[in-house]
Amino acid sequence: MRNFLLLACCWFFLTTNAQPTQQAMVLTVLTNAGDPIGNASVAVAAMNWSAKTDTMGRCTIPSSVRLPGAKLTIAYIGFRTQSVSIDDITDQYTIRLAPLTENIEEVLVSTGYQVVPKERTTGSYATVDRERLDKVVATDIISKIDGLVPGMLFNRNSTRAITLRGQSTLFSDSNPLIVLDNFPYEGDIMDINPNDVENITVLRDAAAASIWGAQAANGVIVITTIKGKRNQALQIDLRSNIGIAESPNLFYQPKMSTASFVELEQMLFANGFYTATENSIQKSPYTPIVDLLIRKRDDPEQAVTIDREIERLTSIDVRDDLSRYFYRPAVNQQHALNIQGGGERNSFYLSLGYDRNREELIGNSLQRVSINARNTLYFLKDRIRASLGLDLSNRRITNPNIGVHSLTMSGQSKVYPYARLVNDDGGHARLVTNHPFSFIDQAQQQGLLDWSYRPLDEIAYTKRGTHNTLYRVNADVKVKLLDGLEADVLFQYGNNLSRHRNHRPQETYYTRNMINNLTTVNPDGTFNRPIPLGGILGTTTGEVWNYAFRSQLNYNRVLADEHSISALAGFEVRDNQSNSYSNLLYGYDNNLGIGSNVDMMNTYPRYVDARLRERIANNEQMLGLIDRHRSFYGNSSYSFRNRYIAYGSVRLDQSNLFGVRTNQKGVPLWSVGGAYVLSEESFYRSTVLPYLKLKASYGYNGNINKSISAFTTVRYQGTAISTGLPYARIVNPPNPELRWERVKVYNAGLEFRSRNNWINGNIELYRKQGLDLIGEIPYAPSSGVGTFTENYANTKTHGLDVQLSGKTIGRVVQWNSDFMLSLVRDEVTHYLGGTNNFITMSTPIVGRPQYAVFSYPHAGLDPQSGNPVGFVAEEPSQDYAAILQDINENNIIYHGSERATTFGSFRNTIQWKGLVLTANIVYRTGYFYRRNTVSFASVLRASDQHGDYEMRWQQPGDEAFTAIPSMPAVIDANRDNFYANTDVFVEPGDHIRLKDINLAYNFPSDWTGLARIRSASLYLYVNNVGVLWKKSSVNLDPDYPYADYAPPRIFTLGINIKL
Amino acid sequence: MLCILVASCSDAFLDAKPDKALAIPHTLDDLQALLDDVNQQINQTPGFPELFAPEIVVAENGLGRENMDVTNTYLWQRGNLYATISNYDWDWIYEQVLRVNVVLEELKKLDGQNIDVKRYEQIRASASFFRAWHLFHLLITFSPPYNPVTAEVEPGIVLKLEADINEKLGRSSISECYRQIIADLEFSTTALPKTVPVPSRPNLAAAYALLARVYMSMYDYQNVERYAELSLAENNALMDYNALTGRFPDPLQNNNKEVLFYAIPILHAATLTRNAMIDRSHIGLYTSGDLRRELYYSVSNSDIYKMKSTYRGTTLTSFSGLTSSEMYLVCAEAKIRLGKVEDALLLINRLRISRWRTEVPYEPLDELSVDNLLEAVLLERKRELPFRGLAWFDLRRLRNDPQFSETITREYNGEVFTFGPLSDFYHFPVPPSEIMYNPDI
């Protein structure tokens, strides 16, 4: 409105100016990068004239104002004000403003309820801005912050994937709460387009997180997407990248040689191990080597040919074929286009994203299309602000390949090492899976369908995949009511529809096997097929939808320039529901889209032996879940002269927890905090640290566990096919003492900035106490339960988070550095369970970390037999059952934590002319892991193939250079359990890793100017670069000791263009 | 601004169940559903005792793939029995005891409310039957055979009668356990129905049959006779084996009228049992007219006999429930021991003729000497009751009988293993997991 008037004025002056010789001129104000600066103030003080630039950065200066010698000042917040003499200005003049070096870009933290400048906070917040996010290439947003947030540890080995400042629960969900655009997000992270994220704030302590109440015990990750800015010219941003990964290294884990495995099978065969299998009525399978040995025994004439064949198989290593035909280098593509802009009264953002990943397992891929739109409107002189957001994501996963486990023969845990995927003649090879070759060949002669399993064919013919469609609508209306009082109403609706479809046509082994399994041959040679010819189609459809509504009052007031009050109070409800339904169709014809009816009531004889009978599987299942929350919350903050800040928040959460008395359905949680900005004091005169703030907070966060209840709960399992009656099972017996988990959090910290913002830092000390934590305790089985989940332990965690960022602004070279250090020490302070069961190594010990590594004391190997030696009542013994029973918390050896206790990252960016090099080094120390070893019980069933087998003790004297015991004559599970848990296999996890490198080149502005684009850059990004140093001498990556292969390096080439 | 969504303001909003399939059991339907969990849950019995069947023979190297507990039980190595700290027979049967105790406690809470009284009483009677069923099987598996002299002091099993998992209990004496079991069964006979929709639910005949078995293990033959007769009065049907075509019908489809109560053993030993050979001398017990030889056993080309079909019907495992055919023999044996020889003969012959091939003329049993008749009825048990979960039961009760106690010899991979009255393996040891977590045991 004002612009219009000004322009009108300018034009008016222009046209009514009586001095024809002097023309009005157009001034354009830009940043150094060439972006127009709208709303910049342009003034000629001497003439008492001022104006503002428009969205294109232009302003017309009337000739009447052109007093010779007068100064024209151009100013805009965050930039150094410039003055030019009016005489120097030509008709079309462009001026570029330089950013204020002293000006600290205000860091804002988003809590999901409000956006507050970090300076005014008393709690613990960590922020990750767009610039840091953009340097990392990943398909999902959470992977991008790995190594960028102090105190946050990505535990790659565990289902408890992310922990923030240690873990304060034992068995309830320990992942932090994810908040997306003001509401909790429980969907799939893969449905958020990472290119749409503006910034991330992580709430770490009580003051920060208690606003989220019962969901905040594990910390909160608040994700804010881009909304667009007002008064901004149209910006178009185009990004594209393509990444190629190395092919997985399948030789990562030590493995028994094929020769050793064949020798093992021959030994087992000679001992009669396979006799039961050979004679089994269900025709259990045996490997090709065993098949050859059987033939050799039954037909000694063929011995020479058979031996030659065995020799030939011994030279094969299945990992060669796996590398060539089963795995491939993954290729990831990501393309994103976003458009944003804004006028005086609106701002908008529109983005389109396309991702396409070709996975490393052959046949598998992912495709995602996402469309986001945001629009914000300002009415009534900014009294009303209304925004609307729409998100659409369409994701298709194709995964006919379910991994190497699909190659395993039934009864073994790994595929036999001499398997081939492709024959010498190029055809797809077959593997033994459910029945021996001799049996299926004979069945085929009888006329049954081909019963051979060819993995590569299986992957080619199976049509399996999931299609996910997500859409969300977000609406937010803010209304300014009175002076300082604002009302805010938010609403969100989200819907995620997932359709999983698995079509296995008759060409697949799966279907041929199902059909053949129940086929019977009639005396006249015809076939009886209870499962008819045709394909098998399995579908699962699931829908998850949620409504959320929030209404809030915000109050912000500054009184007498000294007292600043800000408060909010609100009410919110959330309703999440999900349904899912599964179905299975037999005799399916994909062209016609119909299946056949099958009889699922009666049992049918199996082809392998008519005495065995089976029923045709139904697979129909329905699931319905409802999750409802209702909360009341409020917080307020008071600061005096920007120097003393006090904060408090309170929240009551209620939920539809099942089987809890109504007055126990709610949990009240609260926190208080204070901060003292020392640098604002009049007596504070340090120029070295112009900003220094001390802060402290205290409060309670909570954790609601929905899986247990105080009352007896039963679950209906369905209708039993055999009886036709519905049946139910007990989920848990009653526990009237059940209480919700709470975490008490203390935090104290220091924030500082040095002169010119060369260094800024945040140092925090914290202490958390987990109270009434819920977990499982073993019970005597006569009680009717083996374990019971109840409030059973308390824990204590304390730690330190340090974050230091520094930068230099040189003329030629610029260097930025972020250093993070976290120390976390935790221990169990109280444990309800009585006797500790160390046979399974799973019990917490008071005084030790929740996740600790223990081992059994041992006395090496017996020099005569190679048996491992343990202790019973402090005397050496080989009675393994007794050794395991004798272990208690006094004689067990404690090594340390299973999770890193000191960790962090060191990230550096160096800029020289147009080149920018960023590297992130991540380090973790102070923890241990236990590596796998050979299990002789499994070896004696020809199932385990761990490489430690090659190092086993074989004759007296070997104990001098190997710690792996001899192979016993009989299966002894206790012996295996004992030595696998000795300290021989405990390794330190300490390591330093170069996580990623980004080398970018920003094209110079002359070139981009020519092409009429604002900026362009090209970059090369490498992820999973490698481990620079590790303490353990074993050849395993300490973060991936159990994986089949360490994550391959990914090389990505990308381009960003801004128009 | 605050309560815009009226729905969310009421507490009903928070009363929605988080999972549709969950329920706090408070209706008779819920409690009945808990008792109808048939698939290897409430209708099951301990599985390890199956390995004591004298007629099964495991082939050379046939134990190669089995777990240590199965192998050691088969070879009677009681000292080194448990590979881990658990015995799943103990664990899973006690789970069923908890289930039944929960039903009984929830029933007490429903007392006095407006409900179908008859159905309430039936469910309560069923629950009592199930508790007795499971406690009895725990007792005969984990405590020594009944000895009237020492039964009041010898430890039996943990007698769990409440759903509170925090209850601290040791083992009650064998006598006390028997008293509880009999009390539960007698109570159940007051309200169990005569007929039920499926035999996985107990009926009156089943309760009487179980009482007969219980008293048989206590050598109280008067009560054995009494209850066996009561059971036969409810159901004395016998299938004519001539009418069966190759295999036994599915009892859960109500096609086997002899089944009074359906149960199967926990399947630890199922693979071994179905793959095992049947001892030749056992096959020799059947004469040529006996249809049981064709129906129970299959014979291969190399003259090896194996399990072929059992009262389980639909698949190849043992059956361990209650049948009328068993009651015929139980009643007959009791009568013989009480001297009622003619009545006994009537029962035995009626059973045998239903198993006789019609083409072959049937020669009735007419032995009148008690000793010979006792031998005859015990032989008839051996012919009629393989794969019916009774081998362990008979071995235990006949242990001290100088004439009829059994000694079994098993040869495996060159070694010979023997089990006889002097053996220590007439009950399973309490598992380490119980000893570890129950200080009162």
Automatic annotation (TrEMBL), chain A:
Membrane topology listed for this record: Multi-pass membrane protein
SUPFAM superfamilies given in the database record: Carboxypeptidase regulatory domain-like, Porins
Signal peptide location: 1-18
Keywords on record: Cell outer membrane, Membrane, Signal, Transmembrane, Transmembrane beta strand, Transport
Location of the TonB-dependent receptor plug domain: 118-220
Keyword Transport: yes
Pfam family, one: Plug
Entry keyword Aminoacyl-tRNA synthetase: no
UniProt-listed Gene3D superfamilies: TonB-dependent receptor, beta-barrel domain (2.40.170.20), TonB-dependent receptor, plug domain (2.170.130.10)
InterPro entries: Beta-barrel_TonB_sf (IPR036942), CarboxyPept-like_regulatory (IPR008969), Plug_dom (IPR012910), Plug_dom_sf (IPR037066), TonB-dep_OMP_SusC/RagA (IPR023996), TonB-dep_OMP_SusC/RagA_CS (IPR023997), TonB-dep_rcpt-like (IPR039426)
Compartment annotation: Cell outer membrane
Main localization, broad class: membrane
Family per record: Belongs to the TonB-dependent receptor family.
Record NCBIfam families: OMP_RagA_SusC, SusC_RagA_signa
Protein name, UniProt field: TonB-dependent receptor plug domain-containing protein
